[in-house]
From TrEMBL, chain B:
SUPFAM superfamilies: PLP-dependent transferases. Belongs to the class-V pyridoxal-phosphate-dependent aminotransferase family. NifS/IscS subfamily. PANTHER family: CYSTEINE DESULFURASE ISCS 2-RELATED, CYSTEINE DESULFURYLASE FAMILY MEMBER. Keywords: Iron, Iron-sulfur, Metal-binding, Pyridoxal phosphate. This is Cysteine desulfurase. Signal peptide: none annotated. Its cofactor is pyridoxal 5'-phosphate. The lineage of its organism: Bacteria, Bacillati, Bacillota, Bacilli, Bacillales. Residues 2-364 form the Aminotransferase class V domain.
Amino acid sequence: MNYDMLLLRFGELMLKGKNRGRFERTVLTDVKAVLESFPQAQFLKEYGRLYIVLNGEDHESLIKALKKVFGIDTISPVMVCPSELDKIIETALLFMEKIHLKGETTFKVTSRRVWKPFPHSSQEMNHLVGSPMLKTFSNLKVSMNDPELTLRVEIREQGTYLYCEVIPGAGGFPRGSNGKAMLLLSGGIDSPVAGWSSMRRGLEVECVHFYSYPFTSRMAKEKVIDLAKVLAGYAGEIKIHLVPFTEVQTAFTGIGQDNLIITLMRRAMLRIATMLANREGALALVTGDSLGQVASQTLGSMNVIGRATEIPLLRPLIMMDKNEIITLSKEIGTYDLSILPFEDCCTLFVPKSPATNPNLRIVEKIEHRIQTLPTMLQEAVDRTETLVLTSNSHVDLSGEEEVVNGDWF
Amino acid sequence: MIYWDHAASTPPYDEVIQTMGEVMKQHYGNPSSIHRMGEDAAKLIRRSREVCAQALSVKPDEIIFTSGATEGNNMAIKGAALQYNSRGRHIITTQIEHPSVYDSCLELEKQGYEVTFLPVDQQGCVNLDELAAAVRKDTILVSIMHVNNETGSVQPLLEVGKLVKERNPRTLIHIDGVQGYGKLPVYLNDWQADLYTLSAHKIRGPKGTGILYKRAGIELYPLLSGGKQEAGLRAGTENIAGYVAMSKAMRMAGEHQQVFATEISSLRDKLIYSITKMPGLELNSYCNGAPHIVNVSFPGMKAEVLLHTLEEYGMLVSTKSACSSKTSEPSRVLLAMGRSHDVASSAIRISMGDLNTNDDIQQLLETLKVAVGRLEPLSRKE
């Protein structure tokens, strides 16, 4: 016997007042998009919840797809039976069999009689369903306070729902419900995770990537596009701005202040990203900074670097440990791409001892001395290429034939 | 002329030949070069690896590209033996393995390893109790084939995996899958296989290519030194066109497996049924074997004579495995199955491909009848 339905619960968006309707509509749109690949499934909306009637679709692959929808807090696979006492008990027993208990397990039954004409009260139902289960499964022990397993029984007029598993969803706010920001996307582990975290809070994200031919390779650029495509899997589609950065970057190498190169470079990046944000109507920048991780992410560096932009600079990973970031990046599917060994422009020209506590006045003086800097920044923005990606778009950077010809495989 | 030697090699799919040519023409860069042409070549190899991995339901980094089954088997057996000799120096295999496995084990025996060659029953299957008894604390590897190349006998891999891992969870299991892929279902996970060898030209792919599946976490001592190709396990510039074409063949053969098994085993059953009714012939294959191999002996007549007589009528069969058919010794496999010297010296192998038809079988049977009739008076009776 298989599950009949999935029960999806909305997260904290339910706490919102007037915006709730709009938030729910966005989640619904995303769920509908997921359901396109599961043609038999249908959904039913209820206050604070969404039901998906499976009609034979595989619940596991559907859950996997729904875990990418922001705004869904939890997912439970549900069995449905007619609201008759013997049918409910029979289904509860089937349910336990399906779960495969491992060793002794504490449990309780929590019933809810939504349909009042049903002859037994919620309290009575807990006993009526619980005792035959105890008889059948010797591994089960009752615990009212802290059970490992809670079987929920919801009695409704059209049928009774039984479920016990509560699978965490992506959580957060629906896609794009909290405005737009520009994400500085390198090829590393952190920035894609920062992007995902922002998207989960309902930010629409556009990626900005800086490349430095011939100091970085074409592969580095392709790797970033692949990373953006993974993020697009959570957003439907995503924009990426590819900024040519060679000239700006090399302008800093000749000034005899090697230890400040990273600081100068990061400031230039923020300026370009801000210009792009203004052009695209974004209200903030997002970076993958994590306090103290590298020289440019010390408090002193962040102070000097952050002053290069006047719009909010969001750092979702700022207080996270590297291991936590890595775990997340594996979960969201960017880790394997991130660790591919192509150098990006952040690792280029790294001095032997980069400044961890740069002096703002000296930095500003150097920038002032490079008179062509504002022009170079503007040119970089003008020469920026913008691509719109979906999770399965084929991007062709060179304008030549696709390298991997699908017919060959 | 009808080709009945698919266990030796198969006609490549047209798509494989086309792919091979196009890739050779367009992508001659060395995948290790870091310019555009090298990067493109590397990309094709990555995609090939993904396609092969998908065909076996494993991860791409568990696929090592090789030059074929001989290399794969050598790499698996000697590589594991050298890598894990601190765990022990005992290896188990069977008496009916392909020479690339059998002789690798003999080689290791000379180097001081101890090898148990398990016997097989009259149908060519290992005895599980004997296997269980052979697994010891210091057994580092069990190497066993999926389908025997001479007779088509199929080994009980599910039980083998369970037994071996129960007796010693650290013992590695290597499966020579060359004659099984595309013919029978493959369940690497359920078999608990750690290493699995395939060759492309047995599944209508190009010659000179193959794969060794190596489960994540297992180390092998590399047999070739040099560049860092294949994660340092196999130095040497990659055969890009070959790998791309192989991945195509693997995908196609995997997709056709069920149809192949159904259609070809019905041809095999017909062949076996009719041969049982021909006086003078003795079958060495059974209906519970692989769908595509039928081995039959004509005692009293050297195998080569029957082979060449059939060839005169346009039927190309083989004796023993192609790799050892030029020596006129009796088949080691058939002797291990308890056949007499006479039966083991007079066996021919008929191996079918997906292009063979019912009509072909009809013609073969008629030819066989004529050939046997012609040779019967000349045969040496014991």
